[in-house]
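WARN no homologs supplied; continuing
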Amino acid sequence: MIDNNLYTVKIGDIPADKIGANYADSDMVLIDIDNAEKYENFEAIKLGFNQFILCYGGKMQVDVDGRTMNLGENQLLVCPSYAVISNLMLNPKLRCVVMCLTDDLLKSVLRSYTDIWNKALYVHKINIINLHDNSIKKLHNLFSLVQEYVEDEYLVFRPAIIHSLLQAALLDLCSNLAYKSEGFDVELKSQSNTLFNRFIDLLTKTEVKRHPVSYYAQELNISTKYLTRICNEGSGKTALAWIKDYINEDISYYMKDPNMNIKMIAHRTGFPNLSAFGKYVRKIYGMSPSEYRRKLIMN
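OK structure emitted
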């Protein structure tokens, strides 16, 4: 069971300057670790972002949601947001690349492949991926290219280019996750995992996702209370939080479509009128729909 009282660390809480991050913006932090001794151990924390650790030398050990993970050379550790990590032990010879991404950026990049990510990480509990030489080579090349753009501070579209390279890396990761997940759906470990898997499938396939939890519970032939419980136990997030995540993902996706005006987007995402849509966007993003659209286009 995930302890919801733990402190949740957000992207903005990462001391990028202190730890020598190679790149940092409001949605992403990239760190190349070649000296593990300068990184302090910590008490148990809950991640408010998604974390990827690509190890290319040495080793480390960490507990993820109570399960001990031993990461070695040519392995990738993936920790989804809301995962609880504790008991971190770093080998002094550890050499790795760490990527920290907000949920918004991850979903924006993955889009139609988000369900692969959710089922692999939250249902099948896949956290460590053994990478073949070909995958390691591709990821190293991508990170090297990212580093070149990171160092070019005067490049106008630098964040957009870096995020595009990141998309290539994440899509490669998703292909690994999809391959490793094959056969898992045939026999899931428990009824709750099966139902959570079906809930994610249902959310992904439902065109207008703005429905109450009771709607999805009814579609799954279970109670609203039970759906909320299996979501909490499986991911640390409520069913309502999952629904909002998918609504927000759709809003961000449609906002980038120049062929859709704000009124069309409000209708497509299930809001009764522009006023209700505007209030929701202001509550979630702290700005009007038009301002949020401009921000997305600029980035």
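The first helix runs from residue 103 to 110.
OK
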